[in-house]
Amino acid sequence: MNLFVILFSLATLLQEGDPVRFSANFDSGSLGRVDLIDSVWVRPSRTDSVLHLSYEIISRSDPANPANPDLMPSGRWFYFLMDNVKGKHIYLTFKNTDPKRAVYSYDGINFERFPHYQASMRKISALFEQDSVYVAYFVPYGWERLQERLADWTATEYVTMDTLGTSMMGFPIQMLTITDSSVPACEKNTIWLHARVHPSESPANWQLEGLLDRLTEDSDVAREYRRKGIFYVVPFTNPDGVYGGYSRSNARGINQEINWDHHDSITSVEVDALRRRMDSLSKDRPFDLVLNMHAQSDDKISYYIPTEEATTTEYHERAMRLAYLTTDSNPYFFPEDMFYSAPAPRYVEGWLWNRTAGNTLAVTIEMPYSFYNNNPGNEWVTLASLKENGVYMLRAVSDYFGWNIPGRYLVQGLERKNKTVYRYAELPAGEYHVFTWDNAWVLHGTYVRERPGAFRYVIRSQDTHKRPYNGPLRVSMQ
Ligand SMILES: [Zn+2]
User: Fold this and answer.
1) pLDDT tens-digit profile of 273-289?
2) Domain 143-400 has CATH 3.30.70.2750
3) How far is the CA of 294 from the centre of ligand 1 (A)?
């Protein structure tokens, strides 16, 4: 009997080699169950043999949701380490999540998407060059990454950081305030941004990183952004979820996105902390803009635009203007990519709508995981393109408020009979393009200033019975 067990174990060892070990006990790590479904030696030639191992991966579901018990816990996110993989052909099938092409890394820092020939929807088939490899739904953005970047951003005098409160597991909910404090607050627009309500949505933080890098950089443009606005930024609204590798919930199973109308006793401590700080900061004057940053499985960037029926024509149009400004000359984001929805009070947008009667424009923006504009033939989502989208969004915010930024001036006109006259007191010397606005910036003409001085531009009506164009002009170097 004992001899049989020994022989059987030996046979198993010879059959399977050194077993592959799976683990996920690290920042943002997550794995449910792993089942080995097949193990076979393949001889591609007489002198060569490769062990082929097939695993079924069940991703880990969030805890049951005590605040919304009818909601099925989500299990989108996975991020795990496999050891002992070198030289083996590994097949992974994901049973309850939907990666189109997952990502991998040999060091847990630099991730790459599996190439097309190694990955497809829910499947990976790869031979690894090194013995340990991390595999994730998308490039993680964990607690440690955020702390490193916060150290960079807060190293300058115009960025301060404090804490809104403490998460259930004891993480600080960190908030940056970014502004040039030499300009009085009453002369600035106020913008609140928060991300990562849903921990699986790491693309939102890569987008936000691009925005924050631009906003804090030492450049004329960034200096002007900081003179014109006060930016309150909460990068992780759900730090427990991020660190714990949850999908859409905090550590208690609560989906924080839909708890803004719940009484304190049944919502999460995190939403409570956000509401308190938003209330105190906007006590005297509502925020001008609130951006709620997410990622979605749809293969496009989208704003959730508040519908006209649920709000007002004016409010809907403001949201559309911000959306069109974000899509303008953006190679990743197009007007047809929007979603439209009513701002129900369970969302931050509805909570704000009820409090500010439309004074605060609040919208959700979603980044994709896979590709843009529903087109898999285009470049797939990279960290670089997500960061670029952070820069595009910041530029859209600037245009939305009509800020004049070095190299990019927004000028309002005065309508007189059949013409509109645009003036700007002090335009630096340079060659400019002049654009009118028609849900995108449309080139109207060019303007050259040999020396710094007053800008004057006249747009006449094409037809004497019609009013001339009287919208904003963009006068810019590019
Ligand atoms: Zn989300």
Assistant:
1) 999 999 999 999 999 99
2) no
3) 5
Structure-token pair, residue 56? 């079924």
- Domain positions in the chain are 2-136, 143-400, 408-476
- Can you tell me which residue has the tokens 């449910």? 32
For residue 469, report the distance from its CA to the centre of ligand 1, in Å.
40
CATH topology of domain 2-136: Immunoglobulin-like (2.60.40)
Torsion of CA 97, 102, 107, 111, to 10 degrees: -130
Please write the tens of the pLDDT for every residue from 189-247: 999 999 999 999 999 999 999 999 999 999 999 999 999 999 999 999 999 999 999 99
Amino acid residing at 272: D
Q: Measure 202 CA to ligand 1 centroid, in angstroms.
A: 10
CA dihedral 152, 153, 158, 163 (to 10 degrees): -120
Question: How many A from CA of 305 to the centre of ligand 1?
Answer: 15
The string of DSSP codes covering 79-113 is EEEEES-BT-EEEEEESS---SS-EEESSSSS-EE
pLDDT, position 463 = 84
The residues whose Cβ lies within 5 A of ligand 1, an ion, are 198, 201, 294
Identical fold between 2-136 and 143-400? no
pLDDT band (50, 70, 90) for residue 104: very high
| Fold classified for 408-476 | Immunoglobulin-like (2.60.40)
Q: What is the pTM of this model?
A: 0.95
